[in-house]
Model the fold of this input.
Amino acid sequence: MADLLDDRTGSDPFSAVNRLFRESYAGARAAYRRALPVTAMTLIGTGEVWRVEQGRPTLSYPADPDLVRVKTLLHAIVAVFGWVEGPCEGQKAREQAGEALSRAILDVQAQSAWSVPQSMAEPIQRILNALVAFCSLKEAGMSPDADAFSADMAPLRSDLEAVIDESGRSAEKTLRANLKAFWEGCSPEARADCLICVCGPAQGRRDNLEYAVVEALFGHNFARTRFFYLENVSTIEGGIEILSGLRTEQALGRVVFGDAGRMWRDLLGGSARRLLGRSDLPRLGE
Done:
């Protein structure tokens, strides 16, 4: 079966059809990319919104730079977790990795140009202090592990949640302003079929802030029909590619099956529903 599916070198008729499928479908995707409606696209948690026209990003509505810097705090926490849980070749390598993390976090801590509210500034400093202390490995024989990191983070969890909550409020404010600016820049014709997309990890779909802002601004029906959460995409270019594929598959479903949503679920979904005896399996957008 693997040989049948590998059409890169095969000379049989099946391989020839598979190669032609890839080539022609790629051409269709390129055409649908150029025909994309005006779209607002953002990366999860940044607040920055890009205007996409004819499949190309044309204008950025920028994020609050301090919101981006606050995300670095979360990245620092994840970096320390990765240092603790990831493989290191010996204690010396672990110490060197810890020292590098400490220096990087200290450099961030030294930046005094943040204009974050005082309610965020103090918790941020406490968290950064704890991260530096944990990474320093100054105490002889210290061998950091996940339990030790969890113990150090425990008294700071209220600080962390406070920073995240304040960041969410800031992100909401920025998103509202940027999406309003995007909307105001659309002609009546563009507003009639424009889309809004967020690129992010699969687990970010649940309780997604960007979706909530879109629904609050434009209503439930708009959000359910013209908002797309593009899973496991980390760049605007990647988001445009995925959106182009979704629109192509929507057209394919409409033309071939008479159902625009047919290709937005498993092509073998009928067998899945027959197996379980129900049709309420998760669908794209849920």
Summary: The first strand starts at residue 39 and ends at 43. The two ends are 33 Å apart (CA to CA).
